[in-house]
Structures are given as structure tokens and as C-alpha cells.
Design brief:
Helix content is 0%, strand content 72%. It is an all-beta fold.
């Protein structure tokens, strides 16, 4: 899960299995952030991001999932 969405300052990501890596992309596909985590819960400060839509790609083992986030 990812919350809150839309968000202004921080995003919290939780997963049943360990999140290995998180990548954040802009609407035009530009990689904004890439971080390795190795945790089931992660909080990311997005207050410096411009308003708009971002895609969070989460990697867990051999699986990946992309979530859309609106930054207000």
C-alpha cells in the first residue's frame, strides 16, 4: 500500500514482503529517485517534488509493481 494519495509532504509505502528497491519517475519518464531499501515499510519525503503525477516502481524479490501518486 502507498498513502496518502494525493500527498503533499510524505509518502509511506508498506508491503507484505521486503521492498528491495524503489524508483520514482515523472510523467515524462525521467528517473527522479532510485533507492535500495530492504524493508517492509518506507517513508519518503516528497516535499521537494513539483506538483504533478509520479510513478513509484517497487521491487520485491523477482516481482515489481508500479503505483501512480499525485503530488499536491
Amino acid at each position: 500500500t502507498l498513502f496518502p494519495n494525493p500527498a503533499q509532504h510524505k509518502i509511506t509505502i508498506t508491503n507484505l514482503s521486503i521492498i528491495d528497491k524503489i524508483e520514482v519517475y515523472s510523467m515524462i519518464g525521467q528517473n527522479i529517485l532510485s533507492t535500495e531499501e530492504h524493508s517492509k515499510t518506507f517513508t519518503l519525503d516528497i516535499s521537494s517534488f513539483s506538483k504533478g503525477v509520479y510513478f513509484f516502481k517497487l521491487y520485491s524479490g523477482k516481482n515489481s509493481k508500479t503505483l501512480k501518486v499525485v503530488k499536491e
